[in-house]
Design a protein that fits this description.
Helices cover 40% and strands 23% of the residues. It is an alpha/beta fold and 155 residues long. The protein folds into two domains: 5-75, Transcription elongation factor, GreA/GreB, N-terminal domain (Helix Hairpins), CATH 1.10.287; 81-154, Chitinase A, domain 3. It has a five-stranded mixed beta sheet with strand order 5-4-3-7-6. GO terms for molecular function: DNA binding; RNA polymerase binding; translation elongation factor activity.
Length: 155
């Protein structure tokens, strides 16, 4: 079975919009560039043609990647909410030692952005939190070393 992607509704919409753009305006612009380069003649020494063909490869690869992701997506906003334990899609408030509490949204790796409070369920912290309950203290191995986190709230 292909890999399942966990996305928020917002994340899925963003990827769908990117796909529509790539399959429409981006493809059309690239096709026009290719036509113009072909009309210049000798393709063996035509840098514009070579660059456009390379770009076409990247564009088609990204289209295939997005189609694969979107065809095997689970929208985490639609998942049944059980806040008795940490699951994908939950907002989890944690506290490390005497530091202030921090709240993270547990998302799939395609949407993870720790600077915006979104961590992947596949990250060391995400893995440590999954299935745990309020009051649990979990240990996570991060690049900076082992940390202890107390779960204070699950929403």
């Amino acid at each position: 079975m292909p890999d399942v992607s966990y996305l928020t509704a917002e994340g899925a919409k963003r990827l769908q919009e990117e796909l529509v753009y790539l399959k429409g305006p981006a493809r059309e612009a690239l096709a026009a560039r290719l036509r113009a380069a072909i009309q210049m003649g000798d393709l063996s020494e035509n840098a514009d043609y070579t660059a456009a063909k390379e770009e076409q490869g990247f564009l088609e690869g990204r289209i295939q990647e997005l189609e694969a992701i979107l065809s095997h997506t689970i929208i985490i906003d639609d998942m049944k909410k059980d806040t008795s334990q940490v699951n994908i899609g939950d907002h989890v408030t944690i506290q490390e030692e005497d530091f202030p509490e921090e709240t993270y949204h547990l998302v799939g790796p395609k949407e993870a952005d720790p600077t915006k409070g979104r961590i992947s369920h596949e990250s060391p912290i995400g893995k440590a939190l999954l299935g745990r309950r309020v009051g649990d203290v979990v240990s996570a191995e991060t690049p900076g070393g082992s940390i202890q986190l107390k779960i204070t709230r699950i929403e």
